[in-house]
Amino acid sequence: MITNLPPLIKKDLKEFNQVEAQGWIINSAIKIEEYLDYIIFQYFDPKRPKFFRSHVLNSSIMSFGSKLKVLNAILDYSKETNSLITNIQKIAAIRNAFAHNNTKHSLKFNLENNGEYKTKLWAEDVINVMNSQGKIIAKNNFEYMCEFLKLYEEVEPILKKILESLVNLAKSQNEKVQ
Prior knowledge:
The chain is α+β, with helices and mostly antiparallel strands and 178 residues long. It has a three-stranded antiparallel β-sheet. 17% of the residues are buried.
């Protein structure tokens, strides 16, 4: 069954070091993929369940993106569905950014002129990602993690509801047959 996210021992996402941040993001994205697996499994109700899980839903065979396409086909095409798919795609993009890039430490400064010159200097951790136009942009690690968490908190209850409705539908169909 789907496991819950591990509890956050840290009080703030800012307390994560690079390795912890990467692990937390990747582990959380795996939870989303588990939901996709269970929804697809429940929808198709395969005659050979072990084989279906081990071979068809295996990440080496069916990628996260492919599972998302199957989910899209399973659901009715509505505004809510489009939003769900878009948010899961964003989760996957953030997961990929953390899985395939290292954090860079960036020192930034800003010179303001509001009648007098003021210089602001700060350091931040950034991760370089490619945007939809193919340009590399630096994203603030903490803000990117917060975006991921917000998306996860929006997506997870919807996936849970979809899975529960498929389970309930299967139960009611089994009761009718008996």
